Amino acid sequence: QVHLEESGGGLVQAGGSLRLSCAASSTIFRVGRKGWYRQAPGKQRELVAVISIGGTTNYADSVKGRFTISRNNAGNTMYLQMSYLKPEDTAAYYCNWGDLWGQGTQVTVSS
């Protein structure tokens, strides 16, 4: 079974940057659509960004122009580069592939 593990979260000031990573235990991770989601306390989990097997990307309106989703050539790692972070970006961030989810990494943006 494939396992997903996120890393790279932390505490950052507003306007700062972080890069999240999602490492998969298998390169089969390169197949199919995958994405990043986030969930803030008391709110529903929401889509942040997705990337298709062909490399097409889509973003939530709230992060367009600030976040970039990408993957490595080996196909076993996905990234989320987050810039110009805002306090409202504070949430637990999760990577997703089909029915699989990572355990999440916390991003906290201070004002």
Describe the overall structure.
- By secondary structure, this protein is mainly β.
- The chain is built from no helices and eleven strands.
- It has strands at 4-7, 10-13, 18-24, 34-39, 46-51, 57-59, 67-71, 77-82, 91-97, 100-101, 105-110.
- 29% of the residues are buried.
List keywords for this structure.
globular, seven-stranded mixed beta sheet, 50% strand, 111 residues, mainly beta, four-stranded antiparallel beta sheet, 11 strands
Low-confidence stretches: none
How many DSSP H or I helices? 0
Inertia-based shape: globular
Radius of gyration: 13 Å
How many strand elements? 11
* Residue share in β-strands: over 45%
* Major beta-sheet overview: 7 strands, mixed
Percent of residues in helices: under 10%
Q: What average pLDDT do the residues reach?
A: 95
Order of helices and strands: EEEEEEEEEEE
Beginning-to-end CA distance, first to last residue: 40 Å
Structural class: mainly beta
